[in-house]
Design goal:
mainly alpha
Length: 402
């Protein structure tokens, strides 16, 4: 048994409860798989499926008298969630902050995936996510080519509500595809076929944070496979930019323009966030209160009058929830990186662990320029991918997602 599997192994229930537990495992696995499909198209359906999966998980734990087994990083995330609730309760508008904190429920994706997705189903689940991501990419290309979603003011967004969410999900799916291409024997052809559509669709969103995240994740995976493969990165980037057109190239060059408006605004947001932390170091200004207090902290040089968040994961967490919440979040991500790297040493687990490693690196790199950890669709898919290396070492439920 591997390290990743050992921490998640679950007992087999005895007696009359066993058949019911088996049916709950089957229903829960199907719900997780439907959730993985729906999150790239409808957050409402994905959340309904998560609710069903959570109820199945609770039933399994209760009937089987199990002690829930979760990876180490989840306990730090629970601490982060607890401190968030403290911050919300002490916010200047507790009701607004507590309503916003409902997103913490999404953290249950971790124990649900760990318990309900058996090792044998992990490759299938990732293939489903990758295939639906390819379909979403194809729709984004359709929007760009025929519906004129081809400028900063109107970008491809797939079936989602915002191009940032869309680009973030494409970034995660790209990590899955590259991990399969590099480490999964027998699954490389489909990954290679969908990769161009994923690359082009993400490029056309003009979302620079997703470009940075995808580039960093690709660099890590290529280096883990063979350091010499890093030469492929500039080659692929050059080909993608050559095909993508003038808008993408102009957007890329704007990253290096010190007078670019969005760049100036992000620098201003860092200064504003720093002042929020200075004023409220322990509990922050409260979840969802950055937007409410933005004008009060707005500094000279800020471009937008109001911003909903600070476009930076660490700064947003510290400003909203305080330095203890940021410390707990960093501990969670650190443990996730360490344990995922350990799981990566196990060759059969490598495609799954590689996808998780890519997701973490992409989230961290892209999250320096966007608050992607606060995006519900992104968070659900991120947690699903990163929980998979720790999935339970048990047989798959019969007839489930066959």
């Amino acid at each position: 048994m591997t390290h990743a599997q050992a921490i998640s192994a679950t007992p087999i229930p005895d007696g009359a409860a066993a058949p019911l537990v088996g049916r709950l495992e089957q229903a829960g696995l199907i719900a997780v798989m439907v959730m993985a499909v729906a999150v790239q198209f409808s957050i409402a359906i994905a959340q309904v499926m998560l609710t069903i999966a959570v109820l199945c998980w609770i039933g399994i734990v209760a009937l089987g008298h199990e002690r829930p087994s979760v990876p180490r990083f989840f306990w730090a995330l629970l601490g982060y969630a607890g401190w968030t609730l403290v911050s919300a309760a002490l916010s200047g508008n507790p009701r607004l902050s507590l309503v916003d904190s409902k997103q913490l429920v999404l953290l249950l994706v971790v124990p649900v995936v760990v318990r309900l997705v058996p090792v044998s189903r992990r490759p299938l689940l990732l293939t489903i996510v990758m295939s639906l991501g390819a379909a979403s990419a194809a729709y984004g290309l359709f929007q760009w080519a025929l519906l004129h979603y081809d400028e900063v003011g109107q970008r491809p967004q797939g079936t989602l509500g915002h191009y940032m969410t869309y680009s973030g999900l494409l970034m995660l799916v790209l990590g899955i595809a590259l991990s399969k291409l590099l480490f999964a024997r027998g699954e490389r052809v489909w990954a290679a076929l969908v990769m161009p559509a994923l690359l082009m669709a993400m490029a056309l969103t003009l979302s620079r944070n997703a470009w940075v995240g995808a580039f960093a994740a690709a660099a890590v995976l290529l280096a883990r496979k063979d350091f010499r493969l890093l030469i492929a990165l500039p080659v692929v980037a050059f080909i993608t930019l050559s095909l993508a057109g003038a808008a993408v190239n102009a957007r890329l060059l704007s990253m290096f323009n010190s007078q670019d408006a969005t760049r100036l605004d992000r620098v201003a947001m860092l200064r504003e966030g720093t002042q929020m932390v200075r004023d409220h170091p322990l509990v922050g200004v409260g979840p969802n209160m950055v937007k409410e207090l933005y004008e009060q902290y707005r500094v000279p040089g800020a471009v937008e009058r109001v911003n909903p968040h600070l476009h930076n994961n660490p700064m947003q967490i510290a400003a909203e929830r305080g330095l203890p919440a940021l410390a707990l979040w960093l501990v969670a991500i650190g443990l996730l990186l360490v344990d995922t790297a350990r799981a990566f040493r196990d060759k059969p687990c490598r495609p799954v662990a590689g996808a998780a490693l890519a997701a973490v690196v992409a989230m961290l790199a892209g999250g320096m320029f966007e608050y992607n950890f606060g995006d519900s669709e992104f968070l659900m898919l991120f947690l699903l991918i990163t929980a998979l290396p720790f999935a339970a070492a048990r047989p798959a439920p019969e007839n489930a997602a066959a």
